[in-house]
Amino acid sequence: MRDLAAVDAPVIQALNEVVEKRPRWGFWKCFERLRSDGRGWNHKRVYRVYCGMRLNLKRKAKRRLVTRERQPLLASQELNRVWALDFMRDTLYDGRPFRTLNVIDEGNREALRIECGTSIPSVRVVRVMNQLVEVYGKPQAIRLDNGPELTADTYVDWAKERGVQLLFIQPGKPNQNAFVERFNRSFREEVLNAWLFNAVSEVQDAADEWLTDYNEYRPHESLGNVPPAVFKPRVFNAKVSTSELPT
User: Which of 108, 128, 196, 205 could form a cystine bridge with 228, CB 3.0-4.6 A?
Assistant: First the structure.
């Protein structure tokens, strides 16, 4: 009796090499790849081995996690040393989803911008960041997660051209971006969970109003129960005032 495992070892190895890099390929795509590579096995034999390896069953594709260095959360009180940004998701009253891009300065926990929209791709993120730099000046670094909008070449190239260091946190470690995560919780509790919105424009208006209150009136326990504008006032070198920030 033949030892099929030994006889089919070359087929098994070849299939493993294909599906290791391309786990979503089906049988015929794998088979045609093998034929293109000069493997002369007929499709019946390859399919028998393919099923024996249980490759005909639905399989999950595992995404490779990006390796990042651990980002220690240092509480510097220097303005424009480190900004932090993050995305949030919610829905309008009729169920349509929307997102917000939240940007704060870790130096005094000041909220620099809450950008609301149904979609906020990397091009829009860059536009918002350019507006903020024009008003507040350039940060030395930005703390952020590994979302596709933030790892896209458009955004990474913008940071490189500006000389801004990107401090990517480790995947699954939101505590490494704790300042903006705490800000997100306050925004959700006091705005997103408190009101029903019919349009994104209503969310933006509420966010703008709350942002002023957050920065200028709302006491912060971590800042000695004073708002960011009192804890560490910002001196604007630019001629543009915060009220003239483009939207």
Answer: 108
Token pair belonging to 48: 């028998």
The residue range of the domain holding 108 is: 82-244
Q: Is residue 107 part of a domain?
A: yes
Token pair in block for residue 25: 């390929």
Q: Rounded to two decimals, what is the model's pTM?
A: 0.65
Residue that is written with structure tokens 């399989």 in the block? 59
In tens, the pLDDT along 126-148 reads 999 999 999 999 999 999 999 99
Contact indicator for 49, 15 with CB cutoff of 8 Å: yes
**Does 30 share its domain with 88?**
no
* Same domain, residue pair 20 and 89: no
Q: How far apart are the first and last CA of the chain?
A: 76
Dihedral of CA atoms 17, 21, 25, 30 in degrees, nearest 10, equals -30
What does the block give as tokens for 78?
């220097």
What is the phi/psi pair of residue 24, to 5°? -90, -5
User: Which amino acid, one-letter code, is at 33?
Assistant: R
